[in-house]
Amino acid sequence: TFSYWKGFKEQPSMHYMRPFYLALDKFGLPNTRRALLALENSNINIGSTSALCVKNTPKHKFYMNYYKQFIEFYGRKRKFSLGWLNELTHEYDNLVQLADRDFMLFFKWMKDSGKLDNSVLIVMSDHGIMQRSVKNTLGGRTENRMPLFAIVVPPHIKAKYPHIPQNLRKNTKRLTTVYDAHETLVDILESDFLRSQTVLNENEKLPRGISFFREIPEKRSCDDAAIPGDYCVCNSYDQMDVGSTESKDVAQFLVSYINQVLSKQGDKCAKLHISAIKDFFFVKSNLQRHREREEFSLRNIFGFDPEVKKFLSVFETVPGHALFEATVSTNEKGSYDVIGRVNRVNRYGNQSWCIEDKFAKPLCYCS
Protein backbone atom coordinates (compact mmCIF):
# COMPACT_ATOMS: atom_id res chain seq x y z
CA THR A 1 0.00 0.00 0.00
CA PHE A 2 2.57 2.60 1.09
CA SER A 3 4.98 1.66 -1.71
CA TYR A 4 2.37 2.35 -4.41
CA TRP A 5 3.21 5.21 -6.81
CA LYS A 6 5.81 7.38 -5.06
CA GLY A 7 6.87 4.81 -2.48
CA PHE A 8 10.11 5.35 -0.57
CA LYS A 9 13.57 6.34 -1.79
CA GLU A 10 15.12 4.76 1.28
CA GLN A 11 13.99 1.97 3.57
CA PRO A 12 11.53 3.74 5.92
CA SER A 13 12.04 1.57 9.00
CA MET A 14 14.56 -0.67 10.74
CA HIS A 15 12.53 -3.75 9.84
CA TYR A 16 10.83 -3.82 6.43
CA MET A 17 9.06 -6.75 4.80
CA ARG A 18 8.58 -5.40 1.27
CA PRO A 19 11.68 -7.17 -0.17
CA PHE A 20 10.36 -10.43 1.26
CA TYR A 21 6.92 -10.00 -0.30
CA LEU A 22 8.42 -8.96 -3.63
CA ALA A 23 10.33 -12.23 -3.58
CA LEU A 24 7.10 -14.13 -2.80
CA ASP A 25 5.48 -12.63 -5.91
CA LYS A 26 8.00 -14.54 -8.03
CA PHE A 27 6.40 -17.84 -7.05
CA GLY A 28 3.98 -19.19 -9.64
CA LEU A 29 3.10 -17.66 -13.00
CA PRO A 30 3.57 -13.87 -13.25
CA ASN A 31 0.54 -11.57 -13.46
CA THR A 32 -1.94 -14.35 -12.65
CA ARG A 33 -2.60 -13.66 -8.95
CA ARG A 34 -5.66 -11.45 -9.50
CA ALA A 35 -7.23 -13.94 -11.92
CA LEU A 36 -6.58 -16.84 -9.53
CA LEU A 37 -8.10 -14.90 -6.61
CA ALA A 38 -11.22 -14.21 -8.69
CA LEU A 39 -11.59 -17.93 -9.35
CA GLU A 40 -10.99 -18.83 -5.71
CA ASN A 41 -13.60 -16.30 -4.64
CA SER A 42 -16.04 -18.31 -6.81
CA ASN A 43 -14.84 -21.60 -5.26
CA ILE A 44 -12.93 -22.59 -8.39
CA ASN A 45 -9.44 -23.92 -7.66
CA ILE A 46 -7.19 -24.70 -10.61
CA GLY A 47 -3.80 -24.76 -8.88
CA SER A 48 -2.21 -27.16 -6.44
CA THR A 49 -2.12 -24.37 -3.83
CA SER A 50 -4.03 -21.15 -3.23
CA ALA A 51 -2.86 -17.83 -4.67
CA LEU A 52 -2.98 -16.66 -1.05
CA CYS A 53 -0.32 -19.19 -0.05
CA VAL A 54 3.31 -20.05 -0.71
CA LYS A 55 3.24 -23.83 -0.89
CA ASN A 56 1.30 -24.76 2.26
CA THR A 57 1.77 -21.52 4.21
CA PRO A 58 -0.75 -18.63 3.98
CA LYS A 59 1.02 -15.36 3.15
CA HIS A 60 -0.55 -13.53 6.08
CA LYS A 61 1.02 -16.05 8.50
CA PHE A 62 4.49 -15.01 7.33
CA TYR A 63 3.64 -11.52 8.52
CA MET A 64 2.16 -12.67 11.83
CA ASN A 65 5.23 -14.79 12.57
CA TYR A 66 7.49 -11.85 11.68
CA TYR A 67 5.46 -9.65 14.03
CA LYS A 68 5.86 -12.15 16.85
CA GLN A 69 9.63 -12.24 16.32
CA PHE A 70 9.78 -8.44 16.36
CA ILE A 71 7.80 -8.19 19.60
CA GLU A 72 9.79 -10.88 21.39
CA PHE A 73 13.21 -9.73 20.17
CA TYR A 74 12.83 -6.24 21.66
CA GLY A 75 11.13 -7.44 24.82
CA ARG A 76 10.26 -4.53 27.11
CA LYS A 77 12.13 -1.92 25.04
CA ARG A 78 9.95 0.88 23.69
CA LYS A 79 8.98 0.12 20.11
CA PHE A 80 6.49 1.04 17.41
CA SER A 81 5.34 -1.08 14.51
CA LEU A 82 2.88 -0.50 11.67
CA GLY A 83 1.74 -3.63 9.86
CA TRP A 84 -0.51 -3.54 6.81
CA LEU A 85 -2.22 -6.57 5.25
CA ASN A 86 -4.63 -6.02 2.35
CA GLU A 87 -4.48 -9.04 0.03
CA LEU A 88 -7.30 -10.88 1.84
CA THR A 89 -9.75 -7.99 1.85
CA HIS A 90 -8.94 -5.57 -0.95
CA GLU A 91 -10.47 -7.40 -3.90
CA TYR A 92 -13.22 -9.54 -2.36
CA ASP A 93 -15.43 -9.56 0.73
CA ASN A 94 -15.35 -13.22 1.65
CA LEU A 95 -11.68 -14.21 1.58
CA VAL A 96 -10.94 -12.56 4.93
CA GLN A 97 -12.71 -15.43 6.69
CA LEU A 98 -9.77 -17.63 5.71
CA ALA A 99 -7.66 -15.80 8.29
CA ASP A 100 -10.22 -15.73 11.13
CA ARG A 101 -8.57 -18.46 13.18
CA ASP A 102 -5.04 -17.15 12.55
CA PHE A 103 -6.01 -13.67 13.74
CA MET A 104 -7.76 -15.12 16.77
CA LEU A 105 -4.68 -17.16 17.70
CA PHE A 106 -2.39 -14.17 17.18
CA PHE A 107 -4.46 -11.90 19.45
CA LYS A 108 -4.82 -14.71 22.00
CA TRP A 109 -1.02 -15.09 22.04
CA MET A 110 -0.66 -11.34 22.58
CA LYS A 111 -3.01 -11.49 25.56
CA ASP A 112 -1.93 -14.79 27.14
CA SER A 113 1.79 -13.97 26.88
CA GLY A 114 1.29 -10.64 28.65
CA LYS A 115 2.30 -8.61 25.60
CA LEU A 116 -0.79 -6.40 26.02
CA ASP A 117 0.02 -5.56 29.65
CA ASN A 118 2.22 -2.66 28.61
CA SER A 119 1.28 -2.12 24.96
CA VAL A 120 -1.41 -0.31 23.01
CA LEU A 121 -2.82 -2.43 20.18
CA ILE A 122 -4.69 -0.79 17.30
CA VAL A 123 -6.53 -2.73 14.58
CA MET A 124 -7.62 -0.47 11.75
CA SER A 125 -8.32 -0.06 8.05
CA ASP A 126 -7.92 2.85 5.63
CA HIS A 127 -11.39 2.52 4.08
CA GLY A 128 -14.41 0.25 4.02
CA ILE A 129 -15.55 -2.20 1.37
CA MET A 130 -14.60 -1.08 -2.14
CA GLN A 131 -16.34 -3.83 -4.11
CA ARG A 132 -18.75 -2.37 -6.64
CA SER A 133 -21.78 -4.45 -5.59
CA VAL A 134 -21.59 -3.00 -2.07
CA LYS A 135 -19.96 0.38 -2.60
CA ASN A 136 -22.55 1.58 -5.12
CA THR A 137 -25.38 1.43 -2.59
CA LEU A 138 -26.31 4.10 -0.04
CA GLY A 139 -25.23 1.80 2.79
CA GLY A 140 -22.03 0.98 0.94
CA ARG A 141 -21.15 4.65 0.45
CA THR A 142 -21.43 5.18 4.19
CA GLU A 143 -19.55 1.98 5.06
CA ASN A 144 -16.75 2.86 2.66
CA ARG A 145 -16.20 6.13 4.53
CA MET A 146 -16.26 4.54 8.00
CA PRO A 147 -13.39 2.04 8.25
CA LEU A 148 -12.70 -0.14 11.26
CA PHE A 149 -10.73 1.36 14.13
CA ALA A 150 -10.35 -0.67 17.33
CA ILE A 151 -7.98 0.03 20.20
CA VAL A 152 -6.84 -2.01 23.22
CA VAL A 153 -5.34 -0.09 26.16
CA PRO A 154 -3.27 -1.75 28.93
CA PRO A 155 -5.25 -2.58 32.11
CA HIS A 156 -3.00 -0.49 34.38
CA ILE A 157 -3.56 2.62 32.20
CA LYS A 158 -7.34 2.15 32.36
CA ALA A 159 -7.18 1.70 36.14
CA LYS A 160 -4.94 4.73 36.73
CA TYR A 161 -6.79 7.00 34.29
CA PRO A 162 -10.47 5.93 34.40
CA HIS A 163 -11.49 8.79 32.11
CA ILE A 164 -9.71 7.01 29.22
CA PRO A 165 -11.97 3.91 28.98
CA GLN A 166 -15.00 6.13 29.67
CA ASN A 167 -14.10 8.48 26.83
CA LEU A 168 -13.21 5.63 24.47
CA ARG A 169 -16.69 4.17 24.95
CA LYS A 170 -18.34 7.56 24.41
CA ASN A 171 -16.28 8.24 21.31
CA THR A 172 -17.55 5.11 19.58
CA LYS A 173 -20.72 7.17 19.03
CA ARG A 174 -18.94 10.36 17.94
CA LEU A 175 -17.54 11.63 14.64
CA THR A 176 -13.85 10.64 14.48
CA THR A 177 -11.03 10.85 11.93
CA VAL A 178 -7.45 9.72 11.36
CA TYR A 179 -6.36 13.13 12.67
CA ASP A 180 -7.72 11.94 16.02
CA ALA A 181 -5.68 8.74 15.71
CA HIS A 182 -2.57 10.90 15.25
CA GLU A 183 -3.33 12.90 18.40
CA THR A 184 -3.85 9.64 20.29
CA LEU A 185 -0.43 8.39 19.17
CA VAL A 186 1.10 11.68 20.38
CA ASP A 187 -0.46 11.12 23.83
CA ILE A 188 0.99 7.60 23.91
CA LEU A 189 4.43 8.68 22.68
CA GLU A 190 4.65 11.42 25.30
CA SER A 191 3.02 9.26 28.01
CA ASP A 192 0.68 12.17 28.68
CA PHE A 193 -2.64 10.74 29.81
CA LEU A 194 -3.73 13.70 31.94
CA ARG A 195 -4.37 16.36 29.29
CA SER A 196 -7.16 14.19 27.88
CA GLN A 197 -9.11 14.91 31.09
CA THR A 198 -9.67 18.47 29.86
CA VAL A 199 -13.17 18.91 28.44
CA LEU A 200 -13.34 20.87 25.19
CA ASN A 201 -15.71 23.81 24.88
CA GLU A 202 -18.08 23.03 22.01
CA ASN A 203 -18.81 26.73 21.50
CA GLU A 204 -15.18 27.50 20.71
CA LYS A 205 -13.12 26.61 17.66
CA LEU A 206 -12.30 22.91 17.91
CA PRO A 207 -8.88 21.51 17.00
CA ARG A 208 -8.69 19.47 13.80
CA GLY A 209 -7.53 16.39 15.68
CA ILE A 210 -8.74 15.28 19.12
CA SER A 211 -7.19 12.35 20.98
CA PHE A 212 -9.52 9.37 21.40
CA PHE A 213 -8.60 9.49 25.09
CA ARG A 214 -10.41 12.83 25.34
CA GLU A 215 -14.19 13.13 25.05
CA ILE A 216 -15.00 14.23 21.50
CA PRO A 217 -17.86 16.76 21.40
CA GLU A 218 -21.20 15.24 20.47
CA LYS A 219 -22.01 18.13 18.14
CA ARG A 220 -18.75 17.92 16.19
CA SER A 221 -19.36 18.31 12.46
CA CYS A 222 -17.47 17.39 9.31
CA ASP A 223 -16.42 21.03 9.03
CA ASP A 224 -14.96 20.95 12.55
CA ALA A 225 -13.07 17.74 11.79
CA ALA A 226 -11.73 18.95 8.39
CA ILE A 227 -13.57 16.15 6.56
CA PRO A 228 -14.12 17.01 2.87
CA GLY A 229 -17.77 17.31 1.87
CA ASP A 230 -17.72 14.24 -0.39
CA TYR A 231 -16.43 12.10 2.50
CA CYS A 232 -18.87 13.39 5.13
CA VAL A 233 -21.22 10.71 6.47
CA CYS A 234 -23.46 13.16 8.32
CA ASN A 235 -25.91 13.30 5.42
CA SER A 236 -29.16 11.67 4.43
CA TYR A 237 -30.23 11.04 0.83
CA ASP A 238 -33.60 11.33 -0.91
CA GLN A 239 -33.91 9.37 -4.16
CA MET A 240 -34.84 11.51 -7.15
CA ASP A 241 -35.84 10.83 -10.75
CA VAL A 242 -32.75 10.14 -12.89
CA GLY A 243 -34.69 11.36 -15.92
CA SER A 244 -35.44 14.78 -14.45
CA THR A 245 -34.07 17.98 -15.94
CA GLU A 246 -32.10 18.64 -12.74
CA SER A 247 -30.49 15.19 -12.92
CA LYS A 248 -29.47 15.64 -16.56
CA ASP A 249 -28.13 19.15 -15.92
CA VAL A 250 -26.00 18.00 -12.98
CA ALA A 251 -24.61 15.00 -14.88
CA GLN A 252 -23.78 17.16 -17.91
CA PHE A 253 -22.05 19.70 -15.68
CA LEU A 254 -19.95 16.94 -14.11
CA VAL A 255 -18.93 15.44 -17.46
CA SER A 256 -17.91 18.90 -18.66
CA TYR A 257 -15.95 19.33 -15.44
CA ILE A 258 -14.15 16.00 -15.99
CA ASN A 259 -13.32 16.90 -19.59
CA GLN A 260 -11.93 20.22 -18.41
CA VAL A 261 -9.66 18.41 -15.94
CA LEU A 262 -8.54 16.00 -18.66
CA SER A 263 -7.82 18.82 -21.12
CA LYS A 264 -4.64 19.51 -19.12
CA GLN A 265 -3.34 16.16 -20.41
CA GLY A 266 -3.41 17.40 -24.00
CA ASP A 267 -4.98 15.00 -26.49
CA LYS A 268 -4.00 11.86 -24.57
CA CYS A 269 -7.47 11.32 -23.05
CA ALA A 270 -10.67 10.85 -25.05
CA LYS A 271 -13.52 13.30 -24.57
CA LEU A 272 -16.14 11.67 -22.35
CA HIS A 273 -19.89 11.59 -22.94
CA ILE A 274 -22.76 10.47 -20.71
CA SER A 275 -24.09 7.02 -21.54
CA ALA A 276 -26.41 6.60 -18.53
CA ILE A 277 -27.40 8.25 -15.25
CA LYS A 278 -27.54 5.49 -12.65
CA ASP A 279 -28.64 7.35 -9.49
CA PHE A 280 -29.57 10.83 -8.41
CA PHE A 281 -30.13 11.99 -4.83
CA PHE A 282 -31.00 15.14 -2.96
CA VAL A 283 -28.48 15.47 -0.13
CA LYS A 284 -29.73 16.67 3.24
CA SER A 285 -26.83 17.82 5.39
CA ASN A 286 -26.62 17.98 9.16
CA LEU A 287 -26.15 21.35 10.84
CA GLN A 288 -22.57 22.36 10.12
CA ARG A 289 -20.30 24.70 12.05
CA HIS A 290 -18.36 27.38 10.25
CA ARG A 291 -15.07 27.64 12.07
CA GLU A 292 -14.17 31.01 10.62
CA ARG A 293 -17.26 32.64 12.15
CA GLU A 294 -16.59 33.97 15.62
CA GLU A 295 -19.52 36.30 16.24
CA PHE A 296 -22.79 34.99 17.68
CA SER A 297 -25.86 34.84 15.47
CA LEU A 298 -28.63 32.44 14.57
CA ARG A 299 -26.93 31.84 11.21
CA ASN A 300 -23.76 30.82 13.06
CA ILE A 301 -25.68 28.32 15.16
CA PHE A 302 -27.34 26.64 12.20
CA GLY A 303 -24.37 27.24 9.88
CA PHE A 304 -26.02 26.69 6.51
CA ASP A 305 -27.36 28.68 3.59
CA PRO A 306 -30.99 27.67 2.88
CA GLU A 307 -30.62 28.70 -0.77
CA VAL A 308 -27.84 26.18 -1.43
CA LYS A 309 -28.94 22.71 -2.52
CA LYS A 310 -26.75 19.61 -2.77
CA PHE A 311 -27.11 16.64 -5.10
CA LEU A 312 -25.31 13.34 -5.49
CA SER A 313 -25.07 12.00 -9.03
CA VAL A 314 -23.89 8.56 -10.16
CA PHE A 315 -23.39 8.28 -13.92
CA GLU A 316 -21.64 6.25 -16.61
CA THR A 317 -19.54 7.65 -19.44
CA VAL A 318 -18.21 6.42 -22.76
CA PRO A 319 -15.78 5.46 -24.07
CA GLY A 320 -14.65 3.09 -21.35
CA HIS A 321 -17.91 2.64 -19.40
CA ALA A 322 -16.49 4.50 -16.41
CA LEU A 323 -18.79 4.87 -13.41
CA PHE A 324 -18.44 8.13 -11.49
CA GLU A 325 -20.08 9.69 -8.48
CA ALA A 326 -19.87 13.26 -7.25
CA THR A 327 -21.66 15.71 -5.01
CA VAL A 328 -22.47 19.18 -6.29
CA SER A 329 -23.94 22.28 -4.72
CA THR A 330 -26.26 24.64 -6.55
CA ASN A 331 -28.08 27.87 -5.72
CA GLU A 332 -31.09 29.75 -7.06
CA LYS A 333 -28.96 31.27 -9.82
CA GLY A 334 -28.45 27.79 -11.24
CA SER A 335 -24.66 27.66 -10.92
CA TYR A 336 -22.96 24.43 -9.84
CA ASP A 337 -19.84 23.64 -7.83
CA VAL A 338 -18.21 20.26 -7.24
CA ILE A 339 -17.92 19.41 -3.54
CA GLY A 340 -14.63 17.59 -3.04
CA ARG A 341 -13.74 15.63 -6.16
CA VAL A 342 -15.33 13.39 -8.79
CA ASN A 343 -14.74 9.79 -7.70
CA ARG A 344 -14.34 6.77 -9.97
CA VAL A 345 -16.33 3.92 -8.41
CA ASN A 346 -15.49 1.07 -10.77
CA ARG A 347 -12.11 -0.29 -11.79
CA TYR A 348 -10.22 1.49 -14.54
CA GLY A 349 -7.51 -1.15 -15.06
CA ASN A 350 -5.14 0.00 -17.80
CA GLN A 351 -7.60 2.42 -19.44
CA SER A 352 -5.42 5.37 -18.40
CA TRP A 353 -2.06 3.83 -19.31
CA CYS A 354 -1.01 6.96 -21.23
CA ILE A 355 -0.85 9.36 -18.24
CA GLU A 356 0.71 9.38 -14.76
CA ASP A 357 -1.16 12.23 -13.03
CA LYS A 358 -2.70 10.56 -9.95
CA PHE A 359 -5.79 12.80 -9.93
CA ALA A 360 -6.53 12.52 -13.66
CA LYS A 361 -5.69 8.82 -13.97
CA PRO A 362 -9.05 7.49 -12.64
CA LEU A 363 -10.88 9.85 -15.03
CA CYS A 364 -8.95 9.25 -18.25
CA TYR A 365 -9.68 6.88 -21.12
CA CYS A 366 -6.61 6.95 -23.34
CA SER A 367 -7.32 7.88 -26.94
From TrEMBL:
Lineage: Eukaryota, Metazoa, Spiralia, Lophotrochozoa, Mollusca
Membrane-spanning parts: none
Protein name: Uncharacterized protein
Pfam families documented for this protein: DUF229 (PF02995)
Species this chain originates from: Magallana gigas
Top-level taxon: Eukaryota
Record-linked CDD domains: ALP_like (cd16021)
GO cellular component, one term: extracellular space
InterPro entries, A to Z: Alkaline_phosphatase_core_sf, DUF229
PANTHER family hit by this protein: FI08016P-RELATED
